[in-house]
Specification:
Keywords: Cell membrane, Membrane, Transmembrane, Transmembrane helix. The longest helix has 31 residues. The protein is globular, with a radius of gyration of 21 Å. The protein has one domain: Growth Hormone, Chain: A. The protein has 22 helices and no strands. Helix content is 76%, strand content 0%. By secondary structure, the protein is an all-alpha fold.
């Protein structure tokens, strides 16, 4: 396991490591999306305002910032911890810490104290911080740099599969099949103990699987480190605003769909549409993995994307408690997503800019419309969120070399957007403007992502042609 960087080996087979890490992506996506279920649940349990309920995301994603800040500080002054202990040990540490966070839900639910729930979420967020720093960078190293966006989109697709079924399964465990459960804190105890047990099983699997080692022999320190790369600096803000926008939209969907002027749905019914929001991300990420695969011809890409879209749509249809008629609007977004990929021409930065512009437009429709148009607008955002994290991440760390893990920690630090942006939207939702107009906040988030995509596409030609990266 102490081999040098194996990316120069002749045609290494990374299938087993990718499958193993993909399982991890699925599990942490599932648990992360449970926050969207917890927010309306805890809001009613403790009679919270929107701002107070958004402390769920503030504590969870705030842990990303503090954990990543600590990691960056250590790597800057003492050397990269991941380079010293290895990606495998880093991922194991993250999984076990996440399991501890899940276990802490038991005393929080037993004593029914909101502060204890927030503390458990903070510990859980710290564990996921380590996973974000290690697993995302690790996947990008399991093959050529040209195909990094495609690989990360594939693994993120399974992460999105976890976020898709979480509202259904998690919503059933907490709300009941028809929302008939009495709102009590104890309803969260068993689900999170089960999550802890599954995480430990995943840790045991990773411990027993042989994973290739990636380590750098370079030890140069001083200067700005990873921050000397301009595309990374802009990428940090892109991650901040993307995660902030995505989390804010997901956090308010259930409350938004409860509005009489929109759909007037119950929480139990809204969770099915929340699943569609995250399911859109899953479809888009799988399509992105195919579209950004440089080894496929255009004909094969088209065929594989159509078959994949149909298959994943059927999976979502089988998971959610909705009729085909209630889901049929989603087919329009699938077609639009397919067209956007074609216009993107398999270029990560160009595709990112197109998707961000579409999301800004969809949210404007959400704000200005009522009824089904407003509802469809906010739900359509999910499918165009799909490739954003993967593309921003790989564009930002492209060419960083020995600074890859350090740069990854800075990008994960920027997930702080998931803590602050929903909080800002919560303030607006609590004001006279209300929930619907509060969606103006993520509009501005996606406009910045649009700017970053345009910048990378036009100003950083080497990012799109990473074989020519000079690492300046």
């Amino acid at each position: 396991m102490n081999t040098k960087n194996t990316t120069n080996a002749a045609a290494p087979n990374y299938t087993v490591p990718l499958v193993t890490i993909t399982l991890l992506f699925f599990m942490w996506g599932f648990i992360t999306c449970m926050n969207d279920i917890l927010i309306p649940y805890l809001k009613k349990l403790f009679a919270l305002t929107f701002v107070e309920s958004m402390l769920v995301q503030f504590c969870f994603f705030g842990a990303y910032f503090l954990g990543s800040l600590l990691y960056f500080t250590i790597s800057y002054y003492k050397g990269d911890p991941i380079n010293k202990v290895g990606y495998k040990k880093g991922m194991l540490a993250g999984i076990l810490l996440s399991a501890v966070g899940c276990v802490l839900f038991y005393p929080a639910a037993t004593f029914s104290v909101y502060g204890l729930f927030l503390g458990a979420l903070f510990v859980l967020g710290l564990g996921f911080t380590i996973l974000q720093i290690t697993a995302n960078a690790y996947v990008s190293l399991l093959g050529s740099e040209e195909s990094a966006s495609g690989r990360l989109n594939m693994t993120q697709g399974f992460n999105a599969f976890g976020t898709t079924i979480a509202p259904i399964l998690g919503g059933y465990l907490i709300f009941g099949s028809g929302g008939e459960h009495i709102i009590t804190a104890e309803a969260t105890r068993i689900p999170y103990l089960v999550f802890a047990g599954i995480l430990i099983l995943v840790a045991l699997l990773i411990y027993n699987v042989k994973l290739p080692s990636f380590q750098s022999e370079e030890t140069e320190q001083g200067g700005l480190g990873a921050l000397k790369f301009p595309h990374l600096r802009l990428g940090i803000f892109a991650i901040f605003f993307y995660v902030g926008g995505e989390v804010a939209v997901g956090s308010f969907i259930i409350s938004f769909l409860e509005l009489d002027t929109v759909a007037g749905l119950t929480e139990a019914m809204s969770k099915n549409y929340l699943a569609m929001y995250w399911g859109g991300s899953m479809i888009g990420r799988f399509l992105g993995a195919i579209s950004l695969n440089q080894g496929l011809s255009d004909t094969k890409k088209t065929l594989y994307m159509i078959l994949t879209a149909a298959a994943v749509f059927l999976v979502i249809y089988g998971v959610v408690d909705l009729t085909f008629g209630q889901m049929s609007f989603f087919l329009v977004f699938l077609v639009l997503n397919f067209i956007a990929f074609i216009i993107g021409k398999s270029k990560p930065a160009r595709t990112l800019a197109i998707f961000a512009s579409i999301n800004a437009v969809l949210l404007i429709f959400t704000i200005l419309s009522t009824g089904k148009i407003a509802m469809y607008g906010v739900l359509g955002v999910g499918i165009f969120n799909s490739i954003m994290f993967s593309n921003i991440f790989t564009l930002s760390i492209s060419g960083l070399g020995k600074y890859t893990s350090q740069g990854s920690s800075l990008l994960v630090m920027a997930i702080l957007g998931g803590a602050l942006v929903p909080l800002i939207q919560g303030f607006i939702a609590d004001s006279e403007f209300g929930v619907q107009k509060s969606f103006v906040v993520p509009v501005f988030c996606y406009l910045y992502v649009l700017f970053f995509g345009i910048y990378c596409s036009k100003k950083l030609h080497f990012v799109e042609h990473s074989k020519n990266v000079s690492g300046h």
